[in-house]
Design goal:
By secondary structure, the protein is an alpha+beta fold. Helices cover about 50% and strands about 15% of the residues. The protein contains 29 helices and 25 strands. Strands 8-25-24-23-9-20-22-21 form an eight-stranded mixed sheet, sandwiched between helices. An eight-stranded antiparallel sheet has the order 12-11-10-19-18-17-16-15. Strand 13 (about 385) and strand 14 (about 390-395) form a beta hairpin. Helix 23 (about 650-690) packs antiparallel against helix 26, helix 26 packs antiparallel against helix 27 and helix 27 (about 810-825) packs across helix 28 (about 830-835). Bound molecules: adenosine-5'-triphosphate. Adenosine-5'-triphosphate binds next to helix 13, strand 16, strand 17 and strand 18. This is Calcium-translocating P-type ATPase. InterPro entries: ATPase_P-typ_cation-transptr_C, ATPase_P-typ_cation-transptr_N, ATPase_P-typ_cyto_dom_N, ATPase_P-typ_P_site, ATPase_P-typ_TM_dom_sf, ATPase_P-typ_transduc_dom_A_sf, ATPase_P-type_domA, HAD-like_sf.
Length: about 850
């Protein structure tokens, strides 16, 4: 029989398990029998194919075509050199991509899937991989099922099963056996791996793991979550394609022009045209961009922000609004009850955090106060085990604070029978339980004060007085939770929302949750970076306003709450979304509307979330940020970034790093392209003048190869500049190379080609040796690149600041390059291939001088264009 056809007892027996769970030995035994709870890895691209894919690039096609041409011309040396460079480039690209892939894989693995299990009578969190059939697991709203499970206990459990059934409306689950044959969609006493709980909680026995689950059977159809491409990479691919055509077009055109002007022979023209093609192609650029992104993402993970979707790195630099939760993200989430207020008495508490040593003062014997404490103690799922060596705390921080308050007031754990529960949910903002008492049953409720007061039978005068009291406390920044109760008949054994009315008010607790000290600082940095920080909280409007003020959020007095938002006509949303920065008593639905409204105003929105219902807003936001600690699995699954420390400051830091990565990519581009431009321009100039090529095609390939793997790669390690958070967000619709950067590429390309061309001609006329003149020209070009690399440390600012020496990779790269150039110039092996000759120190001096000249020219250009003409 299938598990859904069995009764709860039979299901337990069938899987030889019991309510206290399996023992550790049984788990080990079953793991060796059934294997781990894993789906087979997605079929990976075989390594040989990955290597071959390196050649699948229009730039490389052009180079390969050139090698075919040189082969036809029987210019074997050039053919072998071009092919050699293409292969070396593929090897470097393959190795770097492998490194990037490994880094990204490691990051993906940082988001762990854990499951709550009962084993040997203890409730444990285990890696989902370790689940075995027969394990007893617990699931609650926001968690994803990680195996197929026959339910044995449910409390209003609803599951979203779209991944299996395509149906996005959550399905209510139960524990009763179902007769007959049914598809998974109808097996309402089962939950399936990959589906998630949207409401309530449940307990069940694992009936299938890994590939035997329903998900395992269809896993081939599932799409991968993280893509290894970004809009920028796609744009660069597109750019490569266009560039290849442009290079081909220009080279052929110049071939024709030189033929027309100088009537040289076809073979020579072809060799020269190939020279231009080879010179102009930035073959190393795609690999450099990939590695820069991967290194950046790795760095972000070390800084507690795990990027789950690579395009987020680019979007981070464009974020204009960060909408952040309050509790736990902007505040510490270390709650302490400071006061308990009932209509006719109050208590104050001392002590901080979850210490139980604080003192209580006030009228502890007051009846309503006692009742209120009891409600907070029982209508509570937090657990506190006190012992002399080590106390253990688990549960929601608000509930822990209330438990600790009860302990301070002398209440201990009471053994009451809970008949039913309405779990806390940020949509209805209360929790209720039904418990068995001697003569009658009792409903105990705690929740947001105004929601509780609405459900109490109070005179309007009493209600007004209580509202004033808690508003006053909320305005001081306290988080307020109210308690209420009602007696029902002893036969009542179920509980739903309709029962929560005509309650008796008991009291409210005032809780402090101190702001995170680093949050105010991070908010100030965001403001400097042109980013608006908005606080979106489920808390009371006055509490939210007071905390926003403490944190330095802009215009904290301009605040709205959920009630106001409910009555707000759609057309007014964008205006309110833009002008208000404090949104209180919001529901997850408001978050979604806020994202939509801001995006309608062309804002780029980062939105944080933790609850299951936050998923749609996170998905819609340009950057969905999930909380690694208190966030539900569902929010993590849809998010772009997961914060491992739930801290607002980490988001601000991620924005900073994201901007830095983008800068580094831009730096790599504006470093690599002018070199190609300079090489191509010096050849064009030589051809037009009807003279000899200052640098041959093989020499150009040498330069491109050695400078890319040394110098350009070093830029990927460039630390984020201090000023990145002083600029406004980047407009995402602006091209990566704006007109100023395009100018810079042309300018540097021209200056460098003039220097190289001039040195070449000087050497040629002085020494009458083409080989010597070319060796000097190559070394001058390389020296120019070394100095230009230093210019590239800051794109728009001069480089004379303390960050000049902050990237050791640059200096290591220069050292390596010097060795390579010495080998190129002096080793007979290279002399044979590249037709180089030994240089005197004076010649190196000339090359260096050329580099220094370029360096100061570029710094002068920055000064004139940016500081004087203000054009950049
Ligand atoms: P955030 O700022 O991250 O949105 P929040 O904790 O302020 O989080 P909610 O969790 O939606 O927002 O809580 C809203 C209100 O519900 C709180 O102000 C409090 O009055 C009440 N509340 C919070 N937690 C509980 C709970 N466990 N049981 C009952 N009421 C709660």
């Amino acid at each position: 029989m299938a598990p859904y056809q069995l009764s709860v007892q039979d299901a337990l027996e069938h899987f030889t398990t019991r309510i206290e769970g399996l023992s550790q030995e049984e788990v080990m035994h079953r793991q060796s029998k059934y294997g781990m709870n894993e789906l087979p890895e997605k079929q990976k691209i075989p390594e040989w194919k990955k290597f071959l894919l390196q050649f699948h690039n229009p730039l490389i096609y052009v180079l390969l075509a050139s090698s075919v041409l040189t082969a036809l011309l029987q210019d074997w040396l050039d053919t072998w050199i071009i092919l050699g460079v293409v292969v070396i480039n593929a090897i470097v690209g393959y190795a770097q991509e492998g490194r990037a892939e490994k880094a990204l894989d490691a990051i993906k693995k940082m988001v762990k899937y854990e499951t709550t299990v009962v084993r040997g009578g203890l409730v444990l969190q285990v890696d989902s991989k370790e689940l075995v059939p027969g394990d007893i697991v617990l699931i609650k709203a926001g968690q994803r099922a990680t195996a197929d499970i026959r339910l044995i206990e449910t409390h209003s459990l609803k599951m979203e099963e779209a991944i299996l059934t395509g149906e996005s409306v959550p399905v209510e689950k139960h524990i009763h056996p179902i007769e007959g044959e049914h598809l998974p969609a109808e097996q309402k006493n089962m939950i399936f791996s990959g589906t998630y709980a949207t409401y309530g909680r449940g307990k069940g026995v694992v009936v299938a793991t890994g590939q035997n689950t329903q998900l395992g059977k269809i896993s081939g159809l599932l799409t991968d979550i993280a893509r290894n491409s970004t809009p920028l990479i796609q744009k660069m691919d597109d750019f490569s394609r266009k560039l290849s055509f442009a290079i081909l077009g220009v080279s052929v055109l110049f071939g024709l022009i030189t033929w027309y002007l100088h009537h040289s022979d076809i073979q020579e023209i072809l060799v020269n045209t190939i020279g231009i093609i080879v010179a102009a192609i930035p073959e190393g650029l795609p690999a450099i961009i990939t590695i820069t992104l991967a290194l950046g993402v790795q760095n972000m993970a070390q800084n507690r922000a795990i990027v789950r979707k690579l395009p987020a790195v680019e979007t981070l630099g464009s974020v204009t609004d960060i909408c952040s939760d309050k509790t736990g993200t902007l505040t510490k989430n270390e709650m302490t009850v400071m006061e308990l207020i009932s209509p006719d008495a109050n208590l104050t508490f001392t002590g901080s955090g979850y210490e139980v040593t604080g003192k209580v003062s006030g009228n502890l014997n007051n009846e309503t106060i006692q009742r209120s404490i009891r409600i907070f103690n029982l209508c509570n799922d937090a657990q506190v085990y006190l012992s002399s060596d080590e106390s253990k705390l688990s549960g929601d921080p608000t509930e822990l604070a209330l438990k600790i308050m009860a302990i301070k007031s002398g209440h201990s754990d009471e053994n009451v029978q809970r008949l039913a529960v309405i779990p806390f949910d940020s949509a209805h903002k209360y929790m209720a339980i039904l418990i068995k008492e001697q003569d009658s049953n009792l409903i105990l409720v705690k929740g947001a004060p105004e929601k509780i007061l609405d459900r109490c039978s109070l005179t309007s005068q009493d209600k007004k007085a209580l509202t004033e009291k808690f508003n006053q406390k909320a305005a001081q920044g306290y988080r307020i939770i109210a308690s209420a109760w009602k007696s029902v008949g002893s036969t009542v054994e179920t509980l739903n929302d309709n029962d929560i009315h005509e309650l008796h008010f008991a009291g409210f607790a005032c809780i402090i949750d101190p702001p995170r000290p680093e949050a105010a600082d991070a908010i100030a940095r965001c403001h400097e970076a042109g980013i608006i920080v908005k606080m979106i909280t489920g808390d009371h409007i006055e509490t939210a306003g007071a905390v926003a003020q403490k944190l330095g959020i802009k215009n904290p007095e301009n605040k709205v709450d959920g009630n106001y938002l409910e009555s707000l006509p759609d057309e007014q949303w964008p205006q309110v979304a833009l002008s208000c920065n404090v949104f209180a008593r919001t529901t997850p639905h408001h978050k979604l509307k806020l994202v939509n409204a801001l995006q309608a105003q062309n804002r780029i929105v980062a939105m944080t979330g933790d609850g299951v219902n936050d998923a749609p807003a996170l998905k819609k936001a340009n950057i969905g940020v999930a909380m690694g600690i208190k966030g539900t699995q569902v929010t993590k699954d849809v998010s772009d970034i997961v914060l491992t420390d739930d801290n607002f400051a980490t988001i601000a830091h991620a924005v900073r790093l994201g901007r830095g990565i983008f800068d580094n990519i831009r730096k790599a581009i504006i470093f690599i392209l002018p070199t190609n431009a300079a090489e191509a321009l010096s050849i064009l100039a030589a051809l037009l003048a009807g003279g000899t090529l200052p640098i041959t095609a093989p020499q150009i390939l040498w330069i491109n190869m050695v400078t890319t793997v040394t110098l350009a790669l070093a830029l990927a390690f460039e630390p984020t500049a201090d000023n990145v958070m002083k600029r406004p967000p980047r407009n995402p619709s602006k091209p990566i190379l704006d007109s100023y950067l395009a100018w810079r590429i042309l300018f540097v390309g021209t200056v460098l080609s003039v220097i190289v061309f001039a040195l070449f001609n000087y050497a040629l006329s002085t020494y009458q040796s083409i080989e010597l003149a070319r060796t000097i020209a190559v070394n001058a070009l390389v020296a120019g690149e070394v100095f230009y690399l230093l210019n590239c440390k800051h794109i728009r600012h001069n480089v004379f600041d303390k960050s000049f020496f902050n990237n050791v990779h640059i200096f290591r790269a220069i050292g390596t390059l010097v060795i390579l150039q010495l080998a190129f110039t002096y080793l007979p092996f290279f002399q044979g291939i590249f037709k180089t000759v030994p240089l005197a120190i004076y010649h190196f001096g000339l090359a260096l001088l050329g580099g220094v000249l370029l360096f100061f020219t570029v710094e002068l250009e920055k000064f004139v264009m940016i500081k004087v003409l203000r054009l950049g």
